[in-house]
Amino acid sequence: MSREYLHEIFCSIQPHRNKFFKLGSNFNVATSQCHEETDSNFIQHMAINSAEALPICSKYFPKISELTLHDKDIIQRKSYLMDDLRRIFSLVQLTKLTMNNIFYELNIFINLLQLTPNLHTVTWISIKDTPKDLLSLQESKAYQLVSKQNQVKTIIIQGDYTKKMMEVLIHLCPQVQNISLGISDRSLDATVHYLLSEINDGTLHLFSLCIRIASPHWIKYWKMIIQVKLLIQAFTYGGEINCQKETRFLSFQSNKSYL
User: Fold this and answer.
1) For residue 83, what are the contacts with CB-CB under 8 A and spacing of at least 6?
2) Which of 4, 39, 210, 215 is deepest in the core (most CB within 10 A)?
3) What is the C-alpha to C-alpha distance for residues 154 and 170, in angstroms, rounded to an integer?
């Protein structure tokens, strides 16, 4: 494999100016020109496409604030992952995190929450499948601790989800103020019902709930449900419903800010 090819894969163009750095399965410090050329002082976002590359990354990235974990096999290194990450950047500085599948990575997420006090935005690709060890994780001291201390304010679900796993995330990140969901044929209505009921009960303080790519019919239906059943009660004091038809988003927004 040529150095030019590695350079294209790992560092893109002008690596000394690039704010994004990717570790992939073919990463090799000894042969990768881009690893040497990359000025780690500029990198703010690291994407890890292969956990196998972590132990051989010799650079330290002092300004990393965003981390993306794309490798589904990263669970194989969970015993070493926190040490690997802390060796190449400061977890305390992390403010944004993207993870792949909650079925495999919930335990890793809990561990990361313990070490990232400034984390405020979390993105999941999928929270559809329930982890086999969910009950034991929820009963663990680590889970109880991070649910009281983490400062996650925004949760974004890019792909599949279920109401059950959304509940898990809400209980784990009770300070959340902004949630963004896509369409789910089986789980969307149940999830929205759950979130709004939590708002009415005073256990959830959402500033914004956005449903991406919602149809005009769905938006009209939910607007009627909210008005008729008074599910908008939590927003009656200075709040509003905002249906953005041009972008096909349905958003529930309160004028009161909890930031």
Assistant:
1) none
2) 210
3) 11
Buried b / exposed e across 175-207, counting CB within 10 Å, b at 16+?
Answer: ebbbbbbbebeebbeebbebbbebbeeeebebb
The DSSP code for 164 is: H
pLDDT, tens digit (0-9, with 9 covering 90-100), for 186-242: 899 999 889 888 776 666 778 888 888 777 888 788 878 777 655 455 444 444 444
The SS3 of residue 94 is coil
Contact 45, 68 (CB under 8 A): yes
Q: Tokens 């690291």 correspond to what residue?
A: 46
**Eight-class DSSP state of 161:** B
- Is the residue at 259 inside a domain? no
Query: Would 199 be classed as within a structural domain?
Result: yes
Contact 66, 95 (CB under 8 A): yes
User: pLDDT under 70 in the chain at which residues?
Assistant: 1-17, 25-38, 200-203, 228-259
Q: By residue range, what is the domain housing residue 207?
A: 43-254
Domain count across the chain = 1
Q: Rounded to the nearest 10 degrees, what angle do helices 163-172 and 141-149 cross at?
A: 70
Whether 39 contacts 20, CB under 8 Å:
no
Residue 4 domain flag: no
What one-letter code names the amino acid at 33?
Answer: Q
- At position 63, the amino acid (one-letter code) is K
Determine if residue 208 is left, alpha or beta; phi over 0 gives left, psi from -120 to 50 gives alpha, anything else beta.
beta
Residue 139's alpha-carbon distances to 146, 164, 206, in angstroms, are: 12, 16, 26
Place of tokens 């009161």: 256
Which residues in 209-242 are b (16+ Cβ under 10 Å) and which e? Answer: bbbbebeeebbeebeebbeeeebbebbeeeeebe
